[in-house]
Amino acid sequence: MTDISTGATVRQATRGDTEGLISVLAKAFFDGPVADWLVPDPTDRRTVYQRYFELALNHGLDKGHVDTTADLSAVAIWYPRTDPEPKSALEYSAAMEAATGVYAPKFTLLDTMFEAFHPSEPHHYLAYVAVNPEQQNRGIGAALLSHHHRQLDALGMPAYLEASNLRNRELYVRLGYRAGPPMILPTTGPTIWRMWRGQPNAARPEGFPPSGLLPRRSAR
């Protein structure tokens, strides 16, 4: 589907897209408070992020739903949070530790905190959305997310994500999300905003869903 305002054609990603999309993810997430906290050394970060996002993207293709654009300038990795924990969760955790090396404790801590504060209602979880830095601020990311939101609205399904900075938080608000209680990462870590996009006719249109230690998310 092509978004008229941006000219971006959105489609489901395939295995043939992995090389280009791993690069988009690694570049888009390279700077920012979470990146500085996870891997303080920029040289190490390039190596770790390449391995980490290769793992994340392949896992998304296997276990979730991945959208991209025709020119591979953007990517969004979604997971339906409606079923019990997949048996592959422990295997993924081991692979994540191998990919992140000495930085694995912080990646594991981030994953654990995200899971502990994850909403208990069924929803689709946006684990990652990334736009090539050279093509940001053109509405491509919003077009990519709106494509999936239309599908969720047809199903009456909410969406959830975590925003790592105020700029992104405001974008998500414009796309229909509302912010819940934030999380603050330990050891002088950054603030993370929990964001929930409900449905117009939901029983709790203004509230934020409760957290619950549901089955572990399979996104990281």
Describe the structure in your own words.
This protein has 220 residues and is an alpha+beta fold. It has a domain at 10-160: Aminopeptidase, CATH 3.40.630. Helix content is 40%, strand content 19%. It has 7 helices and 8 strands. The protein has helices at residues 18-28, 33-38, 42-63, 89-100, 104-116, 140-155, 166-174; strands at 10-12, 65-69, 74-81, 123-131, 159-163, 178-179, 183-184, 191-197. Strands 1, 2, 3, 4, 5, 6, 7 and 8 form an 8-stranded mixed sheet that branches. Helix 1 (18-28) crosses helix 3, helix 3 (42-63) runs antiparallel to helix 4 and helix 4 runs antiparallel to helix 5 (104-116). The longest helix is centred in the first third of the chain and has 22 residues, at 42-63. It is globular, with a radius of gyration of 16 Å. The protein starts with 9 loop residues before the first strand and ends in a 23-residue tail after the last strand.
